[in-house]
């Protein structure tokens, strides 16, 4: 299941940018963060795909959502200019941003290449 993040949840679970200058991931699993807005049609197309991936990869990665209308500071911190934008956050590397409504296969490829997450691995 995807989880909606507030600023405080983001600071606790992903990156406390108020405390750390350098990127330091706070999570225990790689994650995808979907920056979206309720009025955004492409965002609505991506939502069921992310829900599906969240279920299929349960226990291997977390899928978070950030409403750019409610969490404008987080959107600004990451320089979000267009939505949907997705931040792929690996465990021990820098995060990478992808912009646009990506198809499921592209997301799976990015999860494998950027996050090192493969559904077939246990």
Short summary:
The protein is α/β, with parallel strands linked by helices. It has a single domain, classed as Glutaredoxin, CATH 3.40.30. Helices cover 32% and strands 19% of the residues.
CATH superfamily: Glutaredoxin
Could you give the count of β-strands? 5
Quote the average pLDDT. Answer: 94
- Unreliably modeled segments: none
Our measurement of the CA-to-CA distance between the termini, rounded to an integer number of angstroms, reads 19 Å
Order of helices and strands: EHEHEHEEH
Helix content: 25-40%
Task: Describe the sheet with the most strands.
Answer: 5 strands, mixed
- Decide which structural class fits the backbone: alpha/beta
The count of helical stretches stands at 4
Kindly provide the name of the CATH class: Alpha Beta
Strand order of the largest sheet: 1-3-2-4-5
Strand content: 15-25%
Query: What is the CATH architecture descriptor?
Result: 3-Layer(aba) Sandwich
- How many domains make up the coordinates? 1
CATH topology (fold) name: Glutaredoxin
General form: globular
Structural Rg? 13 Å
Could you explain the architecture of this structure?
This protein is an alpha/beta fold. It has one domain: 3-Layer(aba) Sandwich (Glutaredoxin), CATH 3.40.30. The protein is built from four helices and five strands. The chain has helices spanning 7-13, 41-56, 72-77, 104-113; strands at residues 3-4, 31-36, 62-67, 85-89, 96-99. Strands 1-3-2-4-5 form a five-stranded mixed beta sheet. A hairpin with a 6-residue loop joins strand 4 and strand 5 (96-99). The chain is globular, with a radius of gyration of 13 Å. The relative contact order is 0.22.
């Amino acid at each position: 299941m995807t989880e909606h993040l507030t600023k405080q949840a983001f600071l606790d679970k992903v990156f406390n940018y108020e405390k750390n200058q350098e990127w330091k991931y706070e999570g225990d699993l790689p994650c995808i963060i979907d920056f979206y807005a309720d009025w955004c049609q492409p965002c609505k197309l991506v939502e069921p795909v992310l829900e599906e991936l969240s279920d299929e990869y349960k226990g291997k990665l977390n899928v978070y959502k950030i409403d750019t209308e409610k969490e404008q500071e987080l959107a600004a911190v990451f320089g979000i200019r267009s939505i949907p934008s997705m931040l792929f956050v690996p465990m021990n590397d820098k995060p990478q941003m992808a912009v646009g409504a990506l198809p499921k296969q592209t997301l799976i490829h990015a999860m494998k290449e950027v996050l090192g997450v493969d559904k077939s691995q246990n």
